Amino acid sequence: MEEPEMQLKGKKVTDKFTESVYVLANEPSVALYRLQEHVRRSLPELAQHKADMQRWEEQSQGAIYTVEYACSAVKNLVDSSLYFRSVEGLLKQAISIRDHMNATAQGHR
């Protein structure tokens, strides 16, 4: 056999072999195997991230509840200023009456 003919046959065999390897490497079952391996490797980390996110969500919900409760308490204090002014006026009136009664009682002695 001549050299060019031998090279042509060698190239054909190499091309067929390369094509066969390419087909095997990209066969759907191989792709599914690779996907399964990827999922198997990354699933524990993803599960940990999910657990962390759930824990952070619970903590955030607790903090939000605390802030909302504090805001409500402050609003109630602001709303009650009217009552505090009323109590202050009544206390001033009671002190005035007491002073008047003391002055009257000392005047009768």
From TrEMBL:
The keyword Membrane applies. It comes from the Eukaryota. It holds the Pfam family BORCS8. GO terms for cellular component: BORC complex; lysosomal membrane. It is found in: Lysosome membrane. Keywords: Lysosome, Membrane. InterPro entries: BORCS8. Its main location: membrane. Belongs to the BORCS8 family. This is BLOC-1 related complex subunit 8. It comes from Neovison vison. The lineage of its organism: Eukaryota, Metazoa, Chordata, Craniata, Vertebrata. The gene is BORCS8.
